[in-house]
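A quick aside before the break. I want you to see a complete sequence-to-structure record at least once, exactly as it would be stored in a machine-readable document. Don't worry about memorizing anything.
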Amino acid sequence: MWIDTHCHLDAHEFGGVEQSLAVARAAFDNGVSMIVIPSVDRHNFDLAAQLSSTAPNASYALGIHPICVPAAREEDLSLLRARVESAMTDPRFVAIGEIGLDFFIPALTEPAMREKQDHFFREQLRIARDFELPVLMHVRRSQDQVLKHVRQVRPAGGIAHAFNGSFQQAQIYIDLGFKLGFGGAMTFTRALQIRRLATQLPLEAIVLETDAPDISPSWIHPARNSPEQLPAIGAALAELRGVTIDAIAFQTGRNASSALPRLAGLIPASLPGAV
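That is the input. The structure line, written in tokens, reads:
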């Protein structure tokens, strides 16, 4: 079972709702049973939920991305909490995300912006904890700071998206109940650290993702990424680890369901209209 744990299916690069739904169907036809759509700010909460309600192989998360924090307002946190409370009755709502910290973009590393990022991340972790929801975390050049907040707030696990930390940091995430997300970056031979992590970490700790339309795998880079690439990304992981593709599909799918318990019962056997 292939599960794309991180795909921005609502992104404008896909061309609109109808095109995004076609992308979801193409992914299903290529074996992708479920796509998780993280939102990034208040402006796409509705669209992420709409796509998930229309595409049978999609689910969604609600959150404010660290790159969107500069434009975010304090009341957005109150809105997020209210939206999460109402979404708890929606079986397609599975997590808080995409949230986290980004210390790669220079403008986000200014002291005032680091403080605002910390505040928004911590408050969203609290929302996740209060509703006993897992989190989808952005951790670009911010592993130790993210771990500090997670240790203090203690949300109900989740996924460290696009993981590229150290083995020691990986073990801390695992000990805290998190899975680690791997995707297209792993397919580049020059990505030595990511490939070592993908090879040597416990398979039980790994989930797969595309981050589409971004982080395209090597065979289509720099073209737009798509969730239908996930099985081929899984095949690359199988080759790195010297195991069968079926073993990777089974275990990473199981890991995704463990990290995001509300996925249980959502996996469709077929799509409406499928032959």
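Two observations worth writing down. The chain has nine helices and eight strands. Strands lie at 2-4, 32-38, 58-62, 93-102, 135-140, 158-161, 178-182, 206-208. We'll return to this after the break.
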